[in-house]
Amino acid sequence: MSIGNHALIERIRAEIKTRGSISFARFMQQTLYHPEHGYYSSGRCAIGHRGDYFTNVSVGPIFGQLLAAQFAEIWERLGKTGNFVLVEQGAHHGEFAHDVLESARKRWPDFFAAVRYRIIEPFPVLQARQLQALAGFEDKIEWRNSIDALEPFSGVHFSNELLDAMPVHLIVSQCGRELGAPMECTWLEKFVTLNGDMFGFVDQPIADQTLRDHLQKSPAQLAGYQTDINLGALDWIDNLSRKLDRGYVLTIDYGYPRDEFFAPHRSKGTLQVRAQHRLLQAPFDEIGHADITAHVEWTSIAERAEACGFEVKGFTDQHHFITGIVSDLVARDALSEDVDPKAKRALQTLLHPEMLGRSFQILALAKNVDAVVPLAGLKFAREPDTVLGLGRVAS
User: Fold this and answer.
1) DSSP string covering 96-134, please?
2) Model's pTM, two decimal places?
């Protein structure tokens, strides 16, 4: 028997019994986002030392304070507009939004006056927790259930560990040959099925044409090579491009450029299942009680962004991104010398290559922005086309 949320497990079993095997993307969608029982949507997700995983916001308010400085710079780049919309998606319990707004109020009052904060949050339990965390900023905050419900805006769309939690398709390479013919390999999709009452995988031909088309850019692999494909992130870029009139998209997550994502040694894919800081063996462990994520394949997202009218302004790791912001604050004499030891330790955690500094990358996209000088967080970044391999298909 599977351990986890019994009601959710029974719902998934019933769907498979009725419809037949389901894609892993569908299974992951239900596991994480079922309106009543999903790991995120139910509010069960716990972040921090006492939770299931650790992220940038967990280190304390300094992460939001540093990003507030970057947002203020963007506001200046856009002409100090009086209606600067800051959209956050994947806001969890609202700590980041609070840290950004509190820092802006104290250090950049003109910027704070111009900010209109929008949180994309479809789940009521999380909206309620965000409202509680943002007490005192009610006049600054509005919620939207989706990007589709968001009005066209100028400003910034920000996300931290959003893309890695989008449902992915699992695929596997199968190779064979007819007598006397060369070896041929093709991709199959791993579907979730039932073996009695137990969940398991079955490999099937890929019927989804969008997935088939996307895999044309993926390198051929030897038999048994498994990986994961996030089509939702591409739809996300499409939707966002229709809403951002002018400004930036900053998304922070962990992943690899395409060539590294599909490296031969990464033959088991990037899927992770985690609960209470433990890596679980399979996605069928602790269903509804565990987080399921996959690394981001950044090149495809950047390519789709360019096709939608965005310009890739930068791609770098968090160490270099935050170093750029801090150096800009120092140059402008805007960084307090009286930093308490706790804040210094938090900054070291964000920066250190063996902690979070190299774990996360930042992709920066811009639309209708005429800027030659890079943002502070991007001034130490390498040329993104080279790092991401844009303009060429992996081989």
Assistant:
1) HHHHHHHHHHHH-HHHHHHEEEEEE---HHHHHHHHHHT
2) 0.94
